[in-house]
C-alpha cells in the first residue's frame, strides 16, 4: 500500500516538475515574441524615451493645449475647477507631462497605458462641460530609433447640456 | 526507461533544508517590503482605485478599500511568520494567494521581481520549508525532500539564462544603448578625469560594461551548478546584484536572488572544524562567534591541548592565524563576501596531513600570499568596498534618496536571521552533532 502511494507520489512530483519547467520555458519563449515582454525576465528592456502633451478637444472641434497637463474650467456654480493629468495618472512614470523620460518596459506598453489613461481621465472630469475628447501627442524614440510622433485619443463623450 | 527510473528516484531524494529555510526567510522579508511599499503608497496617495489603474481582465474581482488594506496587512503578517518560521506553511500559502491576487489587480504593477516572488512562493508552498530556521518547529531535523530545492535552483538559472539570451539577441541591448540610457555613461563622465575619458571613450566603456553584464548573467546561470566555480559565481553574483541594487533599487529581485544562493550551498554539514584550545577565552569566543554565524551548520568544534585557534577546511587543509579567520569566513554567509577573495591565496597551499599532539598543523604550508599579509588585505578590501558603495551613493543621489530605508535592509535582516538562527535549534543539539 505504502509502495503504491510512494509510486503515485513520485509520478505526481515528476509530472508537476516537468509541467512547471515546460510552462516556464513556454512563457519565457512566448514573452520574447510579444511586445510587452511580460513574464519573460527581459530586465531593463528597451532604451526608448518619450514625452507627451495633453490636448483638449471641444464640441466645436477646436483643440486646446493643456500646458503641463493642467486646465481650468468653469463649473456649474461658476467656480473654477482645475484638473491636472498628474492627479489622475501617477504610476509607471506616465505623469511627466512635456518632459522626456525613459519608457519603462518599452514603448508598446507605454503607449497602451497612455491610451487607456486617456479614457480613464475623460470619464472623471464632471466639472468640465466643454471637453468632449482628450488627445495626447506623444513624441518617442523607440530603442534608439528616429524620433516619431503619434496622437492618442480618448473615447468621445457627449457634450454637457 | 532508465531515465524515467532515475527521475523517479530523484523525486524521493532527500537533503539538508537549511538553505531552503533561509530562502524562505528571504522571501518573507521581501513579502513584507512589497506589502509595506504598497501600504506606504496607500498612506501617501490614498486608495489605488482613485487614480488610473488597469486590471488584467474586466471580470477580475476588485477589492474595496478596507479589504485592500486588510490584504496588505495580512501580507505583512504572513511575511513576518515566514521569517521567524511560526505557522510557516499556512503563512506561505496565504502569502502566495494574496500576493498573486494583488499582482494581477493592476497591469502597471507588474515587475519581474514580483513575478519571481510569486513563483518562489508557489514552490515554497510545496516544500518542507518549515523544518529549518523555524522557531515554530525547534528541534526538528533540517532534512527532507529536496526536489523543490532543485526546482528553485533551476528557476534561478532560467531567469539568468532567459535574461542573458534575450539581451544578447536584442540589438538595442547588445549595442550598449540600454545601459547608456540607464546612466552608465553619465557616471563615467562624472568620475573619470578628462585624460582617461579620452583614452576610454564612453561608447567603448558602455560596450565593455554591456559585454560584462551579459557574460556575468551567462556565468551565473551556468556556473552556480558546478562545484568548482560555485563559490566564485556566488561572489560575482553578490557584486553584480549589489551594484544593480545600489543603482536601480530593484529590491525584491536582488534579495531573492541572494537568498537563492543559499539553495546552492554544499549539502554536507559539519565538514569543517574549528580547533580551539581546551582552555582560554580566545578559543571560547571564537567558538561562540562561529556558532552564531554558522547558519548552514558547516562547523564542528573540537578542543585540543595546544594554545592556537585554527581551522580545518572541507578538503582537510588546516589554517591558523589570520588565514584561519579568512577560511572560516568563507563558510559563514555574513562574512563570505569579504573572505572569499582573500581565501584564493590558498591556491598555492599543499594538503594538510594531520594535527600534532600539541595542536599544530603537521605540514608547513606555502601560500601565494602569506597569511601574515591577509589582515591588511582584508582591511584594504573592506575599504575598497565601502568606497565603491559611497561613490555610487553620491553619484546617484537621486536614486539613493528615493528609498533610504533600503540601506538598513541588509544589516536589519542579518540581525533578524541571526536571532532566528540562535532561537530555532537548541544549543545542545548543535553540540551533540
Task: Give an overview of the whole structure.
The complex is a heterodimer of chains A (161) and B (433). In chain A, 32% of the residues lie in helices and 27% in strands. With 161 residues, chain A is α+β, with helices and mostly antiparallel strands. Chain A folds into two domains: 1-41, no CATH class; 49-153, no CATH class. In chain A, strands 1, 2, 5, 6 and 7 form a five-stranded antiparallel beta sheet that branches. In chain A, strands 3-4 form a two-stranded antiparallel ribbon. The longest helix of chain A has 32 residues, at 2-33. The mean pLDDT of chain A is 89. Chain B is mainly α and 433 residues long. Chain B has three domains: 15-144, no CATH class; 158-264, no CATH class; 272-389, no CATH class. Chain B has 20 helices and six strands. Chain B has helices spanning 2-11, 18-45, 65-84, 88-103, 112-125, 147-169, 171-174, 177-181, 184-191, 194-199, 202-223, 227-248, 252-261, 281-293, 321-330, 333-343, 374-395, 397-402, 409-424, 427-432; strands spanning 14-16, 143-145, 272-277, 299-304, 310-312, 318-320. In chain B, the strands form two sheets. A four-stranded mixed beta sheet of chain B has the order 4-3-5-6, with helices on one face. In chain B, helix 2 (18-45) crosses helix 5, helix 6 packs antiparallel against helix 11 (202-223) and helix 12 runs antiparallel to helix 13 (252-261). The chains are: A alpha+beta (161), B mainly alpha (433). The interface between A and B is large, with 41 and 42 residues.
Sequence of secondary-structure elements of chain A? HEEEEHEHEE
The proportion of residues forming helix of chain B, as a percent range, comes to 55-70%
Number of domains of chain A: 2
Secondary-structure-based class of chain A equals alpha+beta
The value of Rg of chain A in angstroms is: 24 Å
**Main sheet: strand order of chain B:** 4-3-5-6
Outline of chain A: elongated
Strand content of chain B: 5-15%
* Biggest β-sheet strands, sense, barrel of chain B: 4 strands, mixed
- Count of helical stretches of chain B: 20
Poorly predicted segments of chain A: none
Largest interface: A-B, 41 and 42 residues
Main sheet: strands, sense, barrel of chain A? 5 strands, antiparallel
Q: Gyration radius of chain B, to the nearest Å?
A: 24 Å
Which overall shape of chain B is indicated by the principal axes computed on the Cα atoms? globular
Please state roughly what percent of the residues of chain A sit in beta strands, choosing from under 5%, 5-15%, 15-25%, 25-35%, 35-45% or over 45%: 25-35%
Distance between the termini of chain A: 78 Å
**Alpha-carbon distance between the termini of chain B?**
40 Å
Number of strands of chain B: 6
Mean pLDDT of chain A: 89
